Amino acid sequence: MLSTRLRKNLDFSLIILTYLVVGMGLTTIFSATHGTTGRFLQKQVFAMCLGTVGLIAAALTDYAKIARYAKPMYVANLGMLFLVFRLAQKTKGSQRWINLGMFQMQPSEFAKIILIFCLAAYIVNRIETIRETGTIVGTFLYIVPPMVLILKQPDLGTSLVLIAVWLGMTYIAGASVRHLAIFVAAGALLFAVLWHFKLGIKDYQRNRIETLWNPEADPGGAGYQVRQSQIAVGSGQVFGRGFRRGTQAQGRFIPENHTDFIYTVVGEEGGFVQSSLLVFLYGGILVRGAVIMAQSEEILGKLIATGIVTMYAFHVIVNIGMTIGIMPVTGVPLPLFSYGGSNLLLNMTSIGVLLGIGMRKHRLVF
Question: Is residue 169 a part of any domain in this protein?
Fold first, then answer.
């Protein structure tokens, strides 16, 4: 199975941190969905089992061999995202999930890890010219097609994840900071124009952003969610109200308290102590990922690890930030923690990829 050299480099601390977060997530989902049929917990446990298989398979598979198929993977990824509009049914105004019987597949989740591999391979083939304007523009145009398809679902949160991943990977690859700053400034200017003329931004998305500085902007939607979330987190105080004793969570005052707003359940029932513990565990995962990224002697592995670490960091910061009112509500789940089979499978598989890169960090190249 594994050579002695690979076993020696296996990051057991990353595995432990991962399953501690998953375990806390299962417990919190059980509490948040108390009073239902129990199907949420059952499906999440099933997804964890699939995720474990994905983690092991990803760790055992040489990431460089996967990256060789970047072009067909990229095309297949676009095809998978196109299928959403044919096969997925609209749920709460979004068209994201394809029904596979006992499993709801969300292609945009898998699109993230696929694009990380594809973008890494694309950049490696152009690494010597990464500081040139044409190359950096080309890397951005490379992520535009899947990003547009995801935006049309609509899924703004995942689209923003792709931009964050692109920024992280191109920066580590050696792109000019000036070029990246120009892209960020141009994006901000474009957003300001679209915002001013009310173009391309749906009303509910505007409301979510406006609630950052004015919670009354959307009292029946994002404003209500954020207000109730802040009440829940604040009421937990230091040690929390206790397992399944959260009045906000158990009273169903917080919509999506088992998915996007699951951190509020942690804050209310576990208080500052448990909330801080969860943040500490995520910090440990990000640190171990960053160590693997730094120690990888092959640029391909370094870029893939960068994409995964950036993806995790973006999800954690934005999700926790939106539950306490310092980030807009974007529908970004908490990795390894929120309810959602596709998300859990993706994130556990991504951990497996990191483990695989770490085990092969001293690859011999001739």
Answer: yes
Nearest to 174 by CA among 39, 71, 356, 306: 306
Q: Which residue has the tokens 């199907």?
A: 39
154: preceding bond cis by omega (within 30 degrees)? yes
Q: Helix-strand-coil percent breakdown of the chain, rounded to 5?
A: 70, 0, 30
CA distance 143 to 78: 11
* Residue 91 main-chain phi, psi, to 5 deg: -130, 120
Predicted structure pTM score? 0.94
Tokens of 146: 């899947």
Taking alpha carbons only, the member of 161, 146, 120 closest to residue 312 is 161
pLDDT at 364 over 60: no
Residue 104, φ and ψ in degrees, nearest 5: -100, 115
Predicted confidence at residue 221, as pLDDT, reads 64
DSSP 3-state of 236: coil
User: Does residue 122 lie within any of the structural domains?
Assistant: yes
pLDDT one-digit tens code per residue, 115-142: 999 999 999 999 999 999 999 999 999 9
Burial group, residue 8, by CB count within 10 angstroms (0-12, 13-18, 19+) = exposed
**Nearest CA among 264, 272, 278 for reference residue 226:** 264
At 316-346, the pLDDT tens digits run 999 999 988 888 888 789 999 999 989 999 9
Range of the domain at 286: 4-359
Average pLDDT score over residue span 88-115: 81
**Residue percentage of the chain with pLDDT more than 90:** 60
The DSSP code sequence of 202-235 is -HHHHHHHHTTT-GGGSTTTHHHHHHHHHHHHHH
Residue 134, phi then psi, degrees to nearest 5: -60, -40
Would you say residue 137 lies in a domain? yes
Cβ neighbours, 10 Å, residue 137: 12
First to last CA, the chain: 24
| Number of domain units in the chain | 1
**What radius of gyration do the chain's Cα atoms show?**
20
**Bond prior to 219 in cis (omega within 30° of 0):** no
Does residue 94 lie in a domain region?
yes
Report d(CA 256, CA 248) in Å as an integer.
12
